[in-house]
Amino acid sequence: MKHIYALGGAGLLLSTSMLAVLAQTAPSTPPAPPQFDAQQIPTFVGVDDILEFKALPEYHEPDFVKAFVDAGKLPPVAERLPAEPMVYKTANMPDGVGVYGDVIRHVIGGRPEGWNYSAGQTQGWGGIDIGLSECLTRTGPLFQVRAEELAPLPNLAKSWEWSEDGHELTMHLVEGAKWSDGDPFDAGDIMFYWNDVILDPQVTPLNGASPETFGAGTTLEAIDPYTIKWTFKDVRPTQYLYAMAYGNFCPGPSHILKTEHPKYKDGATYDQFKNAFPPEFLNMPVMGAWVPVEYRADDIIAMRRNPYYWKVDENGNQLPYLDEAHYRLSTWADRDVQAVAGSGDLSNLEQPESFVEALRRSAEDTAPARLAFGARTISYSIYPNLSANGWGEPDERGQAVRELNRDLNFRKAVSFGLNRQALGEALVRGPFTTPYAGGLMPPTSYYDNDSTVYYPYSADDAKALLEEAGLVDTDGNGFVNFPANVAGGADVQITLLGTSDYQTDKSLAEGVVAQMEAIGLRILLQSQAGNQRDANEASGKFDWSLRRVDAELITVVQNTQNLAPTGPQIARGHRAGTDGNLDLLPFEQEMVDTVNAFVATADADERIALMKTYQKLYTDNVYAIGLTQYPGALIINKRFANVPEGTPILQFNWAEDGLIRERLYVPEDQQSSAELFPDTLPGAPGVGNGPVTSN
Ligand code: GLA
């Protein structure tokens, strides 16, 4: 629908210098996504149906581990487990109690920087850090929890209670749990993580948690070795329980980290701390199910079962069932190829370029892997850098782009200039992709179509709005220029930060460059390796960043504070400038207020209304520029049992968490002989020469 001079809702101001008649396409709601039915639905349960913490009459372990005990090299299993281990209930296991043995073979596209998750080092993604880290609470498996009972699963915190006035939350840690080297896990690890990681401005953990992640003014103290107490400014802010899951509150081994942290080691620098545990530093103590025992650059990270893992099944079998885990260091596209071919075990099929081939092969009877699509939770957006007070220290051109980014006419021009249908179809044809307006994602419970403002493709409107923003092609080269008094009146040139790790990211970025060229905007693609992209983005060194959208726009209740720039280091597109302040635009301040109001209320109707307001603010103001949205599919080798039905590749967390990998097993007659280190266990930390054998 085109309206000439449609000034109402869009609030367009006509410039007198303008000769052409301005066409203005009325914003609408996003088009209905195409129907798609190869999608699996989970069986819904309550949190208590999944697990409990209790002592069992006896415990079991694999025979080869028992051999270590018999040889006097390892305490008996009952002594290695907590007094009350976490017990997974049989009724919630799709195939019941499992058997020991075999390997899960992952393929990942990232590369490990080192094991210091607490200081921000990536281990290469693809579920590797998810598996190493255990967090106070857990959310990945919540896709199968009934909406009425939705609350994070207990994990390192086995239970908690709120004070009468709702400001205090007391958490009880699993008593007697141990790190994979046998060192006790307790409140000391929690307080090191809080004081010397979260509160230390020079240390930022991998997924970027900062004090505001848990609410401004929140404090944490240890009451005794197994009790901690949070104090919040708000009353019963239950969604911080979600913030205590992956990847915000997953403490590292303080007994090892302290030996290198500048506060505890004389003369150590923060840089040295960050890099003290390189990939070659093997057997880093973890609370997760498998421990790294082998690293070969650009080849593999191999892990063996953690003999101190603190989770069991109802028969008292210590988990995990799988003795080994591999992470092949390859590419993300290869992850799909190998999972479909059967040489890898798992992939989140998330690059639409491989959908058709993967679907075709998986449909064959002889296919080694099963494939199931979930909801449309994979979305891409462009985040314009909205800071004008120095974040990332832009030069004159960069600063001029920041000012443009802060101009609503400019952001709308970009949105009108995008042909999202074409962007999606360039990735894959068929009913997969659908235009994404930005903000909350349609398959979520808080999404409201009527509160979603969508600027449909209209090159004419885009051009008119660029002119409104003061951008005219003064030198006739097809690209608009800055006004004469800005950056010397040069061509507007905008860098688009993206990653070359994924074909999808590259294709979308190239599509955006071409579409922007058509409306006269010159975009320069900066396609970088994931680690480098993440570092540049986190330090504000970008004009626009194109990336896959984070999961809080799916769940809302998890990482709620990340929905808006609620703290100086929270938002992807807007962090504090060199003066430490956040120069929020008025609508951003409204978004922040809306998110804070959401956090502060438990009233369901109020929350729904607040998220409508949020969605309207986000999409009307084009806070970030939505591109395309599509479903992903989980591919998993058919030999695995206990794969929960309908596991989404991304909802509360990635599938690698949702799957509950410690419960996966392979029936004996289907076990592979892929173990690289049979009959071995992880050795002492830092030994660097692989696992310890039983003889
Ligand atoms: C990468 C992959 C995702 C998922 C995550 C897990 O981002 O692309 O599919 O495996 O890692 O962290």
Automatic annotation (TrEMBL):
Residues 152-549 form the Solute-binding protein family domain. InterPro entries: SBP_5 (IPR039424), SBP_5_dom (IPR000914). Its main location: periplasm. One of its GO terms (molecular function) is peptide transmembrane transporter activity. It comes from the Bacteria. Belongs to the bacterial solute-binding protein 5 family. The keyword Cell division does not apply. Pfam families: SBP_bac_5 (PF00496). Residues 1-20 form the signal peptide. The keyword Signal applies. It is found in: Periplasm. Residues 675-695 are annotated as: Disordered. Keywords: Signal. This is ABC transporter substrate-binding protein. GO terms for biological process: peptide transport.
